[in-house]
Amino acid sequence: MLMVFFAAIFVLLISLFGPPSGYGTHAEAKDFWIKKTHTSRKYSMIVAGDSRIYRGISPREMEKVLLNYRGFNVGYSSAGFAKPMFEKIEGHIDFKFETPVVVLGVSPWSLTPAAGENKHLGRELERKKEEIIQARYFSFVNSVFAPYTVKEVFDYYKGTNEKNNVSYRYTSRGWVASNTVLPNPEKALGPERAAYIENQVSNELLCGLVNKIEEWERNGAEVFAFRPPANRAMEALEDSLSGFCEKEVVRSIEQAGATWLDFNIDNYFSYDGSHLNEQSAIRLSHDLAVKIKNELY
Q1: Closest CA to 155 of 23, 283, 289, 4
Q2: pLDDT tens digit string along 201-244?
Q3: Which positions ≥6 away from 61 have C-beta within 8 Å?
Q4: CA distances, 276 to each of 104, 159, 271 (Å)
Q5: Which of 67, 143, 173, 293 is deepest in the core (most CB within 10 A)?
Q6: What H or E segment, with its residue span, contains residue 48?
Q7: How far, in whole angstroms, is CA 163 from its chain's centroid?
Q8: Nearest-CA neighbor of 276 among 81, 37, 49?
Q9: Which helix (H) or strand (E) holds 13?
Q10: Neighbouring-strand partners of residue 226
Q11: Residue 242 and residue 111: Cα distance in Å, rounded?
Q12: Is the pTM of this model over 0.90?
């Protein structure tokens, strides 16, 4: 009984003085990805791509401009434009809507064979049934009874979160707002350089993407594509090592019927060289919606 009493006191203290909801714990992340993956809801606007999309585009921010649309972000870590991603997009796009919109964040990585494996999406799709049920219907249990590890509490009061000092805020439409206390715009350059040594942009994946764009356009969707902003150093690295020729990619995508949108990457801030912070993600989401609106109307 004494141990039960002290355990109850511990839970109460953590609930009262622990990090606020949305701080970005392991439990919150797990619930977020399960709910994002295991839903059958349809939307009039889908935004898809890799981590630059799931951290970089807020559907709710886009809806402030595209008032008739309801959006969903289906970005996943290291995702690629191949069958698993196509099925995910098609599982959510509402082709019965007057003019459904599909937005593709085409980074060089998203067209490589490694990205095409869609390992993160695959892991989420293979979640156990009981995990899915708990996350979808009983996630409040995590938020009340066991929301934080001891390390997460100490990290919060020290002003850090996890080993990379990045904090995450999970939202209901698939976007993850991310920030860092100590930005390092060169952090992602090393891993990216190593990743492209034996993993180049694939013509097969590009052709598959082109075929899907043509199919979606035939079904009444308006497809838009853009290169998610990183920073100048990252863009130069990708252009030199990945086999990504933006002019050829744009030409192929536009010939398939999609509209390519350009952005000035100097207007946005990447805290690690690859991903945008929350403020820049909100700005990009707004700018993206404005460009789409100008094309639609």
Answers
A1: 23
A2: 999 999 999 999 999 999 999 999 999 999 999 999 999 999 99
A3: 282, 285, 286, 289
A4: 17, 20, 6
A5: 173
A6: strand 45-48
A7: 20
A8: 49
A9: helix 2-17
A10: 105, 261
A11: 10
A12: no
